[in-house]
UniProtKB/TrEMBL annotation:
Descriptive protein name: phosphoenolpyruvate--protein phosphotransferase
InterPro entries given in the database record: GAF (IPR003018), GAF-like_dom_sf (IPR029016), PEP-util_enz_mobile_dom (IPR008279), PEP-utilizing_PTS_enzyme (IPR050499), PEP_util_C (IPR000121), PEP_util_CS (IPR023151), Phosphohistidine_dom_sf (IPR036637), PTS_EI-like (IPR006318)
Coiled-coil segments on the chain, per record: 217-244, 408-435
One Gene Ontology cellular component annotation held by this UniProt entry: cytoplasm
Length: 762
C-alpha cells in the first residue's frame, strides 16, 4: 500500500501540467481500487462550482465542460462537509444530481473524498461502481490517504498551470495572477523578478527563456566534458585502493555521461527555448522519476547516481554563468524557494526592490532583515510558481502578503499611488527625526534599535535612535569561517559602542542554535528550538563565553556605555553562573590596565519558565528585556519559520499579551529597566500596547522607528491605556488586531502607519 501511494505521488509530481497530473491520478486510482469510474472535480475559485476536470469511466468528452453548483450534487456535498461520503446507492440520495452527457446513470455506488490544502477544499476525488454496494473501510482509508498526499501537489500544479499553459514567448500582460503569502516587511514593490537559488541544487533551478541556442548548447557540452575529466581524474587518483568491481562504478558514471539519449534530450530542450541549466534540470528530474518508479532496488539506487551527475554538470555550468551581482542591471524583485541572509549578502542593496520567498514566515530571519532594510517582502508564498518568474513583471504587496504576476496597467496604477503615498509618509517621518518620542500628555518613551552590522549604525542614528537595545553578536560570527579572536571582537564591538556613545549599547552574548547556525560549529538536533542554544551553548564552552565577555568590556574602555544581555535564560542558576563569569572577566580586564567600569547586566525573557520567575531574575540583574519573537513562539508552540503554521504565530494572541503584562506587574517594584526588543516593539500597534503596559524602552529595526515615533507623538498615554483595557478583555488574536485598528482609526493615527489605499486595493 505504502509503495503504491509513493509511486502514484511520484508520477503526479513529475507531471508537466495540471491536466497530465489529474489524468495520472484518475488512471492510477481506478486501477488500484479496481473501480469502474474515477473522476476528479476541482473548485473554480471564482464561481465556486465543481468542474469535472478528469475522468476514467465516464464520458471523457465532458471533462472540463460540465460542472456542479456549490450546493448541487453529491460532489458539492463532499466539499461542503469537507469529509468523505460513501453510498451504496447514490441515486436515491436527496443530494444526487445527474450530470447530463456524463454517462454516470448506470453507476450506483459512490465514494467521494475532499482534496484539502491549507484548510481549503480544492476539489473532490470520486470512485464509482455499477453494483449497489458500499466501498469498504480499507478502500475509503486508501482514498483519504491518497487525497491528503496529493493535495499539495495539485495545489502547486493548479497554481503553476496558469503560467505553464501560456506560450513562454508571449508575456500575458494584464493577467493579474494573484498568490497569497505572509506579510514579511511592509511596503509595495513594482518591478521585474529575478530568481535566485543556491549553487549546484538542481531542484531549485528556474525555467528561463533563451534565444542564444548555440551558446547554451556549447556551454552544456563543455560542462559535460569537464565532468568526464573530473571522473577520470578521481578514478586514477584512487584506483590503487579499489577492487575491480568498485572501479567499475566510475565506468558506469562515464557511460551515463556518454548516453546520447540524456545529452540529446537536454540539447532538444535548449533548442525549444530553455536555457541550459533549466533543460538539464527537466531531463535529469524526468529520468530520476523513471528510476524511482522501478521495482528493482538496484535500479532505484541508480537515481542517486543520476542526481549526482546532474549536480556535477550544473556546477560546471554555473562556473561560467555570471555571478549573482552581475545579473542585476536594474533594481529588481528577488524571488527564491527559500531566501537566506547569505543570498541577500551577494546582491547590491540598491538593486533590491522587493523580496518573495516561497518558504519561511513573517518572523524568519530574512523577513527581520528585510524590515531592517525597509524592503517590501512576502514570505511563505507556497503556491507561487517561482521557477517561471525570472524576468516577469511583478507587484509585491508587503502589507497584505500578496504577489501579483503579469499585472495589468490598472493594477500597476493603483499600486503606484500607494508607492507615492509611502514617499509622502517618509517625508513626514523625516521631520520627526530630532524630536523626542513623547505622548501628547508628556509621557516619555525611549526608542532604541536592534543592530547586527556596522552599517546599521549610521542608518540608525539618521532615524533618531537613542541607543542600541540589542546588538546581535552572532552576525560577525556567522560571516567568518572560524570563531573570531578576542582582539577581532574588540574591534567589532568598539564600532558599535563608539558609534552611539554616550548612549547605551546593549550587547547580547552569542545566541546560536535553533535556526541560527555557524558553518564551522554545526549543531545537529532533532528539535533544535528545544535544544542546545543561546546561554546553554556558551556556558558549556567557557573559552567562547570568556573571550566574548573580555572583548566586550575591553571595547567599552573610556566609553562606559556597555550593557551585557544574556539570551535564552530558563532558570536562576544560569544567571548566577553567568554573573560570576562576567565579574571574573571584568576583574581580568581591569588587571590588564583598561579604563573600564562594571557593565550593567540584563536577561532576556523569551522562555515561558522565565516569565514565571521574572521577579527572582530581576533581583539579580540591572535590566530585563523581553524577546517577543521567541516568547511568542514558545508560548504558542509555533515554529515561526514553518509556513504551515505561520498563521498561528501572532504576538497579539491574548496569552502573549497577558504574559507581557504579567512581566510588568512582577518587576514593578524591583527598580530594573524594562524593555522589549522583539518585532512587536517595531509594530506601531504593539508599541502602543507595550507603552500602556509600562515598558519604558522599545528596541526595533531602524526602519520601524519613524513609524512608531509618529504614532506615539500623536496619542496620549491615557488613550493608550484605554485601548489596552479594551483589548485585554478579548479572547481572539484577530479580535485584538481588529479592535486596535478601529481604535487607531478613531484616534486618527492609522494614517501614520501605512498608505490609506492599502486596505482597498485588490
Amino acid at each position: 500500500m505504502l509503495s503504491l501511494l509513493r509511486r502514484i505521488t511520484q508520477e503526479v509530481t513529475a507531471a508537466q501540467s495540471l491536466s497530465a497530473a489529474l489524468d495520472i491520478i484518475v488512471r492510477r486510482v481506478r486501477r488500484a481500487m479496481r473501480a469502474e469510474v474515477c473522476s476528479i472535480y476541482l473548485v473554480d475559485k471564482n464561481t465556486k462550482e465543481y468542474i469535472l476536470m478528469a475522468t476514467r469511466g465516464l464520458n471523457a468528452d465532458v471533462a472540463g465542460n460540465v460542472s456542479l453548483k456549490a450546493n448541487e450534487g453529491l460532489v458539492s456535498l463532499v466539499g461542503r462537509r469537507a469529509e468523505p461520503v460513501n453510498l451504496e446507492d447514490a441515486h436515491v440520495h436527496p443530494s444526487f444530481h445527474y450530470l447530463k452527457g456524463s454517462g454516470e446513470e448506470r453507476y450506483r455506488s459512490f465514494l467521494g473524498v475532499p482534496i484539502i490544502h491549507h484548510r481549503q477544499v480544492l476539489g473532490v476525488l470520486v470512485v464509482q461502481h455499477e453494483d449497489k454496494r458500499r466501498f469498504d473501510e480499507g478502500e475509503e482509508a486508501f482514498l483519504i490517504t491518497l487525497s491528503a498526499q496529493l493535495a499539495g501537489v495539485i495545489a502547486h500544479a493548479e497554481a503553476t498551470g496558469a503560467i505553464t499553459s501560456i506560450n513562454p514567448n508571449v508575456i500575458p500582460s494584464g493577467s493579474d495572477f494573484r498568490y497569497k503569502g505572509i506579510p514579511g516587511s511592509s511596503g509595495v514593490a513594482i518591478g521585474r523578478g529575478v530568481v535566485v537559488f543556491p549553487p549546484a541544487d538542481l531542484d531549485v533551478i528556474p525555467d528561463r527563456i533563451t534565444t542564444d541556442f548555440d551558446e547554451e548548447i556549447q556551454d552544456f557540452y563543455q560542462a559535460l566534458d569537464a565532468v568526464r575529466q573530473d571522473i577520470r581524474r578521481a578514478s586514477n587518483r584512487i584506483s590503487q585502493h579499489l577492487s575491480k568491481d568498485e572501479k567499475a562504478l566510475f565506468d558506469v558514471y562515464l557511460k551515463i555521461l556518454d548516453d546520447n539519449s540524456i545529452a540529446g534530450e537536454v540539447v532538444r530542450k535548449i533548442k525549444e527555448g530553455q536555457w541550459a541549466q533549466g533543460a538539464l534540470r527537466q531531463v535529469i528530474q524526468a529520468h530520476i522519476q523513471q528510476f524511482n518508479r522501478m521495482d528493482d532496488p538496484y535500479l532505484r539506487e541508480r537515481a542517486s547516481d543520476l542526481r549526482d551527475l546532474g549536480r556535477r554538470i550544473l556546477s560546471h555550468l554555473q562556473e561560467k554563468a555570471p555571478n549573482v551581482a552581475e545579473r542585476f542591471s536594474e533594481p529588481s524583485i528577488i524571488i527564491g524557494e527559500e531566501l537566506t541572509a547569505s543570498m541577500l549578502g551577494e546582491i547590491p542593496i540598491d538593486k533590491i526592490k522587493g523580496l518573495v520567498s516561497v518558504m519561511g514566515s513573517g518572523n524568519s530571519h530574512v523577513a527581520i532583515l528585510a524590515r531592517a532594510m525597509g524592503i517590501p517582502t512576502v514570505m511563505g508564498a507556497l503556491d507561487l510558481p517561482y521557477a517561471q518568474l525570472d524576468k516577469v513583471d511583478l507587484i509585491v504587496d508587503g502589507y497584505l502578503g500578496k504577489v501579483f504576476t503579469y499585472p495589468s496597467e490598472a493594477l500597476i496604477e493603483n499600486y503606484q499611488q500607494i508607492v507615492d503615498e509611502e514617499r509622502l509618509l517618509e517625508e513626514e517621518y523625516e521631520t520627526l527625526k530630532d524630536l523626542p518620542c513623547e505622548t501628547l500628555d508628556g509621557h516619555r518613551l525611549s526608542l532604541y534599535v536592534n543592530t547586527g552590522l556596522s552599517a546599521d549604525i549610521a542608518r540608525s542614528l539618521d532615524r533618531g535612535a537613542e541607543g542600541i537595545g540589542l546588538y546581535r553578536t552572532e552576525v560577525p560570527f556567522m560571516v567568518r569561517d572560524r570563531f573570531p579572536t578576542e582582539a577581532e571582537q574588540v574591534i567589532i564591538y568598539r564600532q558599535q559602542l563608539e558609534g552611539f556613545a554616550p548612549s547605551p549599547v546593549t550587547v547580547r552574548t552569542l545566541d546560536i542554535g535553533g535556526d541560527k547556525a555557524l558553518p564551522y560549529f554545526p549543531i545537529n538536533e532533532a528539535n533544535p528550538f528545544l535544544g542546545w542554544r543561546g546561554i546553554r551553548v556558551t556556558l558549556d564552552h567557557l573559552e567562547i563565553f570568556m573571550a566574548q565577555i573580555r572583548a566586550m568590556i575591553k571595547a567599552s574602555a573610556g566609553l562606559y556605555n556597555l550593557k551585557i544581555m544574556l539570551p535564552m535564560i530558563s532558570n536562576v542558576a544560569e544567571v548566577e553562573e553567568a554573573l560570576a563569569l562576567i565579574r571574573r572577566g571584568y576583574a581580568e580586564v581591569k588587571e590588564e590596565g583598561y579604563d573600564v567600569k562594571m557593565p550593567q547586566v540584563g536577561v532576556m525573557i523569551e522562555i515561558p519558565a522565565a516569565v514565571y520567575q521574572v521577579k527572582e531574575l530581576a533581583e539579580l540583574v540591572d535590566f530585563v528585556s523581553v524577546g517577543s519573537n521567541d516568547l511568542t513562539q514558545y508560548l504558542l508552540a509555533v515554529d515561526r519559520n514553518n509556513p504551515r503554521v505561520a498563521d498561528l504565530y501572532n504576538s497579539f494572541h491574548p496569552s502573549v499579551l497577558r504574559a507581557l503584562l504579567s512581566i510588568v506587574d512582577q518587576v514593578r517594584d524591583e527598580g530594573v529597566g524594562l524593555s522589549v526588543c522583539g518585532e512587536m516593539a517595531g509594530d506601531p500597534m504593539g508599541a502602543i500596547l507595550l507603552m500602556a503596559m509600562g515598558y519604558d524602552v522599545l528596541s526595533m529595526s531602524s526602519t520601524s522607528l519613524p513609524k512608531v515615533k509618529a504614532v506615539i507623538r500623536n496619542i496620549s498615554m491615557e488613550q493608550s491605556q484605554v485601548m489596552l483595557n479594551e483589548v485585554m478583555k478579548l479572547s481572539h488574536a484577530e479580535a485584538v488586531t481588529q479592535t486596535m485598528t478601529r481604535l487607531m482609526r478613531e484616534a486618527n493615527i492609522e494614517r501614520l502607519i501605512r498608505p490609506s489605499k492599502t486596505t482597498n486595493v485588490e
